[in-house]
């Protein structure tokens, strides 16, 4: 009987760890196909590039899983997750917090976090060894991404000391630049533009979540922009980020870093971003705005990949 119970409980346990790792939110992982598309047509299917991106990609899943697991432990300890998820559990999907539901204990989550971080570090090191290019700046940026991800809500707790927004964008930028650096060497101006657009994606759905969570975060001393700024100041901050993204798209095309038709191709993603701004800042529907932000980010990445494929294939003899 005991063996039967343990076997039937196993799938639920695995599911709890999957929810702890937030595997249903995969937007940072889109850095991998984006970096692949920037490697160039001649390198797309070479064993070195595919092996490098495979190790880097699985390692990225491990590193992000560690970061969000530690974030859940800290949020459980200080009560911010209970405050932010308790009053509106159906909309916020309380099941995504297995520490709050009691499916996992803190010790389970901590062990999982360190195991995932260790696996991620090893896989990222393997990616650097396999890579066609391993410039010092790439390895250094890889190490910075690892350390800051683990320290996001653990150790020095970067997200509690005013660095959350910087990390949300910077980590995404770093993933794309590392992927490009490992597979293609020094990034082009257009690759840098794309890495910044990619980094703005997680930031521009994170700020809406932070606005929704401002009271709970303030109560535990988590200094997000939504906590530090006034309500109107936070709205202005979100508007400024949205306009900065649109301005980057337009100026990249206008100044020659991107093809002249780049802004036209990006129009659907820009439309979604404007719709997100209207929904979140104009109408105050923060959770819907966050969802629109996810779709805007995914549309942006899909469009960038299509543009890169078009350029690379068009340049082939």
Automatic annotation (TrEMBL):
One of its GO terms (biological process) is vitamin K biosynthetic process. It is a multi-pass membrane protein. It is found in: Membrane. One of its GO terms (cellular component) is membrane. Keywords: Membrane, Transferase, Transmembrane, Transmembrane helix. It comes from the Bacteria. One of its GO terms (molecular function) is prenyltransferase activity. InterPro entries: UbiA_prenyltransferase, UBIAD1. The chain crosses the membrane at residues 28-46, 53-70, 121-154, 166-184, 190-208, 236-253, 295-315. This is 1,4-dihydroxy-2-naphthoate octaprenyltransferase. The lineage of its organism: Bacteria, Bacillati, Actinomycetota, Actinomycetes, Pseudonocardiales.
């Amino acid at each position: 009987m005991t063996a039967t119970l343990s076997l039937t409980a196993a799938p639920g346990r695995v599911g709890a760890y999957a929810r702890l790792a937030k595997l249903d939110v995969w937007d940072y992982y889109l850095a991998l196909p984006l970096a692949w598309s920037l490697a160039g047509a001649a390198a797309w299917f070479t064993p070195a590039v595919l092996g490098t991106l495979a190790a880097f990609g699985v390692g990225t899943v491990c590193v992000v899983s560690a970061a969000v697991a530690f974030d859940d432990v800290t949020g459980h300890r200080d009560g911010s997750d209970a405050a932010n998820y308790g009053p509106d559990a159906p909309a916020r999907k309380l099941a995504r917090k297995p520490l709050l539901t009691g499916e996992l204990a803190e010790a389970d989550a901590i062990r999982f976090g360190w195991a995932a971080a260790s696996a991620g570090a090893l896989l990222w090191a393997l990616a650097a060894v396999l890579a066609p290019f391993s410039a010092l700046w790439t390895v250094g940026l890889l190490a910075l991404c690892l350390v800051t991800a683990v320290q996001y809500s653990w150790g020095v707790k970067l997200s509690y000391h005013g660095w959350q927004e910087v990390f949300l964008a910077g980590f995404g930028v770093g993933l794309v630049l590392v992927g490009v650096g490992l597979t293609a060497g020094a990034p082009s101006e257009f690759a840098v533009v794309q890495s910044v657009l990619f980094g703005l994606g997680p930031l521009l759905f994170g700020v809406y979540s932070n606005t929704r969570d401002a009271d709970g975060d303030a109560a535990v001393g988590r200094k997000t922009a939504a906590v530090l700024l006034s309500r109107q100041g936070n709205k202005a901050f979100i508007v400024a980020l949205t306009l900065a993204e649109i301005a980057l798209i337009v100026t990249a095309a206008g100044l020659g870093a991107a093809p002249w038709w780049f802004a036209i191709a990006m129009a659907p993603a820009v439309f979604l971003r404007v719709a997100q701004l209207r929904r979140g800042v104009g109408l105050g529907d923060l959770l819907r705005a966050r969802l629109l932000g996810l779709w805007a980010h995914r549309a942006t990445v899909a469009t960038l990949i299509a543009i890169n494929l078009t350029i690379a294939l068009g340049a082939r003899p």
